[in-house]
Amino acid sequence: MPDNTSHPSVIVVGAGFAGLTAARELEGIGVDVRIFEARDRIGGRAWTAECLGGHTLEMGATWVHWMQPFVWTEITRYNQGIFPSPDIDDAYWYSRGTVHRGTEHDLDTALSRLQAKILEDSREFFPFPHDPMAILNDPVTDPDLVARFLAADEGSVLDCLRNGEYSDEDIDLADSYWSAGYQGNTATASPLMAKHWGALSDHRSSLMDEQTLRFKLTNGMRGLYQAIADDVRADISLNTPVQRIVHTADGAEVTLVDGTVERADAVIVTAPIGALQHIEFHPPLPEEQQEVISDGTNSTGFKIWIKVAGHRSVIAGAPGDNPISLLRSEKMLSDEDATIMVGFGSNHEAIVLDDIASAQRALDVWDADLTVLDCGGHDWVADKWSGQTWATLRSGQFFNGWSRFHTTDTRLRFAGADYAKGWNGVVVDGAIESGISTARILLTELRPQRGRSWPTE
């Protein structure tokens, strides 16, 4: 245990939302913090940058909502504003060689009955959405409910639609939505993740859409992560990857890329699951954690920004075997007579993010007369320090994935969206939740005995 006559120290690996909020929480109670970030910037998979000829766009995390409790607290704390993505006039959805057209309402109506089936049982499975394993830990839970809950982590998110009640067009439409949502192949996607999203959205698909695709920060994600960083007293060492972590029951030793060795009473690693393979742990991580790292998440997809000619108010969907599964208009450019659109797909190798011809081929599937002028984005899956976009769950990983990183018998801890109990993987809310909760749990071990305190200097 740390010496009660001095401040304990914690090393934080990563300066994304989880690392920054963990550092702020620890410093607030008197812990000395050092932060080491592999990239040349803060923010992690939230990155507000200039793209498509100088337009400020989000390369990663984008949307927020007041029903996401942790991010909304930070938005309130730092007086950040929000604004909505634009309403949509024209909807296109592609299935088996046919392009269907209608309004956004038509698309929502067609999708809502499918979502109701996919989200079925979410209320029973997740009575407390931010405690997703609650029914397993309740001794009075009906054993039949437990069995159904465990079984719902197997198979594919779309299996429930393959019972004869739903057409090929229905299944393709659902595949369009969830190929984008899971950022990967729906055939390997755990059905439970979708149900958990539903539970976090009052079991309503319309609210789920509003939480994940509707409201953005006026000052961008950069406005929020920079505000948190400004409240952190510790130096943030950029361009400083961590190569090796030795962790024991009473401390940690971190070796940096230049060979420097840093020691502390504990270490919090906020690297995504897809990047953990680049850190050597000694002793090695438990076999069950290594299995998750080796298997990876279901996240193999991408996000792309596309500028098209004219003012186009469009939302479009196509099944996951097409390059882009979900496309929607995000910003009208009156001075350029153009529109900036955002797209998501399940396979980052199916498109070249900065190649106009590649983007044009992807958009041509909807026969919507969309002419690509420019495009760009960041390949998070190919990025060594992420290895994925947001962390979505493979079949079997709801119970045998992210939660395996919650327990440890050493002073090594994991925090980040990938390990969150609430909005796991997908939005900034989960990263902030995990950063705060991990820091507070660690503080119970580092806190001085009652009647004693850490010195103020």
From TrEMBL:
Residues 17-442 form the Amine oxidase domain. Gene3D superfamilies: FAD/NAD(P)-binding domain (3.50.50.60). One of its GO terms (molecular function) is oxidoreductase activity. This is FAD-dependent oxidoreductase. It comes from Tsukamurella asaccharolytica. The lineage of its organism: Bacteria, Bacillati, Actinomycetota, Actinomycetes, Mycobacteriales.
